[in-house]
Design brief:
Layout (H helix, E strand, L loop, with lengths): L3 E4 L3 H13 L5 E4 L6 E2 L18 E3 L1 H8 L2 E3 L4 E5 L4 E4 L2 E4 L2 E4 L3 E3 L18 H11 L4 E5 L3 H12 L3 E6 L11 H13 L2 E5 L3 E7 L2 E6 L4 E4 L1 E4 L3 E3 L2 H5 L8 E3 L10 E3 L4 E3 L7 H15 L13 E3 L6 E4 L8 E7 L2 E7 L5 E7 L6 H7 L6
Parallel strand pairs: 1-2, 1-9, 2-5, 9-20, 11-12, 11-17, 12-13, 19-21
Antiparallel strand pairs: 3-4, 6-7, 7-8, 10-18, 14-15, 15-16, 22-23, 23-26, 24-25, 25-26
Length: 381
């Protein structure tokens, strides 16, 4: 019997393998990964500096330990060159691997801004353990850090770096931090809280180039302003890894298009995690991945199941302003209503009939998270 092959050893790939093993200890599993297969929590990368964690200290288990724990063969440092769907096989450098069913847990790549300047290649992105190790090396002895992007990861990094004593400057084209997640009042509260922590903001601005300067780097903004920095970090978002699937003829939209059973346009080929678009939803967060892993594990174990997504709040790791957000699904009509003050804000996203479709909470209002979550409709039933 050919094995189930999982491509990817991140939260989605390992999470799926764990769920499969809960249901069937005998199914043959092979995990293929381009890196060393270390198990770690990727969300911890954006707040590991302030707690003094090195890349190695973030590792929970080696590939060897994971192979023993999961009863799986793990092929590390192995890249998949192509998927032969009719032949049910992966083409690898120097060989091939046949599968009974294939799961793509490929993750996502950082979006790279098209920057000019001879130092543009110095801009760092942090998407895995190796990236984090590189960042820590660059930050050793550095004082000034510029962050491109004021979204979720940009704000978490800003808080983390400032807490470590770095002079932090954040640039974003939006007029507020977390503009895609928070109403204006909550976004401005985040701006002010991080400013009190030492973060300087350059909102409503775009970055044009990164150049070398006598004392480090210079970030050139549209309009002529310049930011001096020792380290520049880009946090402008992620793009699902779809190239492998697209080359194999699988349907691709924003991510690898899959149905509620996580199956792609090719029977027997599945996708989950940051690379997948599940019935129109691209959700690069922990809870959707775990729900998808449990549903797909049941299907692979012979108990077909479709994924369902309840309302899933996201905790923003910014101690300067504790924040929880459960944004409405894209395209849902409605408006924010905001209450509260300096101690915290409670915002509801309401449709025309007054039904709550999402919420945002800051400060002491975060205690309402569980109660308000229960009021929300499921994201995918």
């Amino acid at each position: 019997m050919e094995p189930i092959v999982i491509v990817g050893s991140g939260l989605a790939g390992y999470g799926l393998a764990r769920e499969v093993r809960k249901l069937d200890p005998e199914l043959p599993l092979v995990i293929v990964t381009a890196d060393d297969g270390s198990s770690y929590s990727k969300p911890n990368l954006s707040n590991a500096l302030a707690v003094g964690k090195t890349a190695q200290q973030l590792v929970n288990a080696s590939a060897e330990a994971m192979a023993q724990q999961l009863g799986a063969a793990i092929r590390t440092h192995t890249r998949v060159d192509a998927i032969d769907v009719p032949g049910s096989r992966l083409l690898l450098a120097g060989g091939e691997l046949h599968y009974s069913r294939l799961v793509l847990a490929l993750g996502a790549d950082p979006v790279r801004l098209p920057l000019d300047g001879v130092a543009a290649h110095e801009v760092l992105s942090v998407n895995d353990l190796a990236d984090y190790a590189r960042l820590r090396g660059k930050l050793a002895g550095a004082r000034r850090v510029a962050i491109l992007g004021a979204g979720l990861i940009g704000c978490e990094f800003a808080n983390d770096f400032a807490a470590c004593g770095h002079a932090v400057e954040v640039v974003d084209i939006a007029s507020q931090p977390l503009g895609r997640l928070l109403p204006a009042e909550a976004g401005l509260a985040m701006r002010d809280a991080l400013a009190r922590a030492g973060v300087r903001w350059h909102l409503g601005r775009t970055v044009e180039a990164v150049e070398y300067a006598p004392a480090g780097l210079e970030v050139l903004l549209a309009g002529g302003a310049r930011i001096c920095a020792d380290v520049v970090v880009s946090a402008v978002g992620l793009r699902p890894r779809t190239q492998l699937a697209q080359s194999a003829g699988l349907a691709v939209k924003r991510g690898i298009a899959v149905d509620g059973a996580l199956e792609s346009s090719a029977p027997g080929v599945y996708a989950l995690g940051d690379c997948a678009e599940v019935e129109g939803h691209v959700l690069p967060f922990v809870m959707p991945i775990m729900h998808a892993a449990r549903a797909l594990a049941a299907t692979l174990a012979g108990r077909p199941q479709r994924v369902s997504y309840p309302a899933m709040p996201v905790v923003v790791k910014t101690p300067a302003l504790p924040t929880v957000v459960c944004p409405p699904a894209p395209g849902r009509g409605g408006a924010w209503t905001v209450a509260g003050g300096a101690e915290g804000l409670a915002a509801r996203f309401l449709d025309a009939d007054g039904a709550m479709l999402g919420f945002a909470l800051t400060g002491r209002e975060c205690g309402k998270r569980q109660a308000w979550t229960r009021e929300l409709p499921p994201l995918l039933a």
